Amino acid sequence: VQLQASGGGLVQAGGSLRLSCAASGSIAVINGMGWYRQAPGKQREPVAAINSGGSTNYIGSVKGRFTISRDNAKNTVYLQMNSLKPEDTAVYYCNADVSTVAHATSKVYRRDYWGQGTQVTVSS
C-alpha cells in the first residue's frame, strides 16, 4: 500500500490550498484517514481525521478553516485549507488505517500507512 500526497506550496496569509492523498495497492478496506503536520523543531501533530462513515475531527486551531473529506471510490482524502496563517507552515503528512488481505491465507492485516509529506509554507 502506498500513499501519494500532493498539493502543498507557498501561499500568502489568508490564502487557500487543497491537499490530496491517494492510496493505492492491495487494499481491502480503508478505515480512518487523516492529516498530520510537523513544523520545524516541533513534534508531529494530528490536524484532521475522517472515519469510514464520514465523521470528522479537527484540532482546535484549524476548526472553521480546514475541511477534511474523502472520496472512497478513489481511495483519496483531501484537506481544504482556507484562511491560512503563518503558523500553519509545516510538512503535512497523510495517514490511512488500511486493512489488507493475504491471498494465500485470507488473513486480514490492519495497520497505519503514511504518505511522503508535502510542504505548506504560509508567508505573512
Word description of this protein:
It is elongated and about 55 Å long. It is mainly beta and 124 residues long. The strands form two sheets. Strands 2, 4, 5, 6, 9, 10 and 11 form a seven-stranded mixed beta sheet that branches. The model has no long low-confidence stretch (mean pLDDT 96). The chain is built from no helices and eleven strands.
Helix fraction, binned, reads: under 10%
Main sheet attributes: strand count, strand direction, barrel closure: 7 strands, mixed
Order of helices and strands: EEEEEEEEEEE
Number of helices: 0
Low-confidence segments, ≥5 residues, pLDDT <50? none
Class derived from helix and strand content: mainly beta
Structural shape: elongated
N-C termini distance: 38 Å
Mean pLDDT: 96
Kindly state the number of beta strands: 11
Strand content: over 45%
Structural Rg: 15 Å
Q: Gist?
A:
The chain has no helices and eleven strands.
Outline the secondary-structure elements.
Elements lengths: L1 E5 L2 E4 L4 E8 L4 E10 L6 E6 L5 E3 L7 E6 L4 E6 L8 E12 L6 E7 L3 E6 L1
Parallel strand pairs: 2-11
Antiparallel strand pairs: 1-3, 3-8, 4-5, 4-9, 5-6, 7-8, 9-10, 9-11
State the main characteristics.
four-stranded antiparallel β-sheet; 124 residues; seven-stranded mixed β-sheet; single chain; mainly beta; elongated
